[in-house]
Specification:
The chain has about 160 residues and is mostly beta strands. The protein has one helix at about 140-155; strands at about 1-5, 15-20, 25-30, 40-45, 50-55, 60-65, 70-80, 85-90, 95, 105-110, 115-120, 130, 160-165. It is globular.
Length: about 160
Amino acid sequence: MKYILKQKILSWDTNYYLYNEQGENIFIIRGKANWNHKLKIYNIEGKELGMLYLSGSKLNSIYYICDENEKEIGCFEKKMKLFKPSYRIVYNSWVLDKKFKTMPYNIYDGAASLIGKIDIVPNMASTYEIDVPNEYNAVNVIMLIFAIELEKENNIRNITVDVDK
């Protein structure tokens, strides 16, 4: 299924709305900037489906992906190694493209099957298209993409990236 996000992912204290291809609102993501920054994802009925929160410092940050009960189920980590950032996903053996600092990029499971893809919609500034072939993974893929995009925004000056598997 494809989801459309019509605004740039820039901050923790903004609300985001994801739409399907027919323009219907599917998910609402509400941000809250505080000591541990949080984003919560809700369905259109207002039921909480998951949460993303940041822990750590600017040099070593961990974005935790949580289920609807706020139980940690995975994370996206950045660690500094010899003055160079290293990134990894700790969730269901998912891996990122090595080129995730640019668009488009993909997320794969350990067997190299596509889990999710994000791209910028041509001729539409600050509009993203998130493609998730299996709806079962939608909430977690969306939370992971938000973690990646927020990390990219926070570290816009980083140029070289290593991706650990």
